Here is the input.
Amino acid sequence: MSRTLITILLITGLNTSIKAQSQALQHYLTQIHFFLDQEGQWIAPNIGFRTEDSISTSYIGIDFAKGIHPNSIRLTTKKYLPYLSEWRITGEMLFSWDASKKQVLLYGTGADGSVVSGESTLITATEMHFTSYRSDAGGKRTEQKEIFRLQQGNLEIGSSFKQNNTWGKEHTIRFTRMEQPKGNLAFMTTRDGNFEVYSMDCKGENLKNLSCNKAIDYAFSFTPDKRLVFYTNRDGNDEIYIMDADGKKASNLTNHPSSDRIPCVSPDGKQIAFLSDREEKSGKIYVMDTDGKNLRRLTNNGYFEDGPTWSPDGRKIVFTRELKDLKDTSRNAVGNGEVFIMDTDGTNEKQLTNKPGYDGGPIISPDGKQIAFYGKSENGKYDIFIMDIDGNNLVNISRDDTEDYSPSWSPDGKWIACTRGSSKNYDVWLIHLETGIKTRLTTQPKRDESPFWIPE
Here is the structure.
């Protein structure tokens, strides 16, 4: 064989090897990008979940994050305990490309003390195959195979173990992307010493003080053009104010010696429903135009009422009424708050709930079909409930061992923002309605509460 032919064959072989390495690396990097897209969070339902078990896992999760080198990626495995409202990390792993071996190497540790190390055996455009060894905390070593498959926008992970020199049947888990909330929230906080209205994004970041005043400011809604409507004691008593989102052009809409509180703007931005004790100390529901004109009273009874909010079409108002014996004026009189609905002129009242305890903070879903509110559950704690607009099909969506209040629907109807905690401290949380997974947005020691969504 001539030297020229040998050289050609060697160069051809080298080019083929480089091309194969380059293609495998490219497939690996493409899959890294796929894993990391849309926050890099994936979940799969746990088929063994037991609702009656307080430490049972409802979802298995995988979080992907960038490594310190573009050719590496970190993987965190976790499990969600719904009763405790928390994710628990079960393992961590690092994947990295080894140019000398032309393979992806992996190394990981488990919360149980186990250690895993291995390498890829095959990388295609849609799959990565690995063989690895797992050593448990006691030193027992097991050989295993794992396959990462991309399937129509989802991720499948198949695992099998070698026992007695025989590979067992592959166990496959199908992961879907964990949906991420969109938009921004406003909420009340005492982190500056007094209640202020703050805004933040759905990750609990990019905080901004919107009210910036030494008085107590408390808000529940924006106008469609993002003007904040709130109540404040800036003038010595509770008054309804409106101001631009940047804190400028604040004006008093009620300007009355009574207490005017809990304002809520109609969907078209033309009216504000609120509570006032200007005619009865128990507080009644009123409506006025957004400029403070055309004041009119909607309810006329001796009961305490609270929290009026509008339906998305602007034709209904839901609120809480505390029912009790009106003849019993003692401080210990037994009261029971129930959710009511009425037309916006105060007619056609209908009681929707009939359960022990105070049912408050009712708010209608963006599609107008459901109402979220807080109320007492069987264990005596306050939880977030959802029911149909007619009061049927009542469901407890928080069901945990803490106090849950002040629900607010996201504009897309997929999330509930709420207050969770105890009298010692409250924080803002999100509940994903499809999965029931709760995410904590605030963590500082002061009170953070009563979140509501900012118009997009």
User: Anything to note?
Assistant: The chain has two domains: 3-177, 184-453.
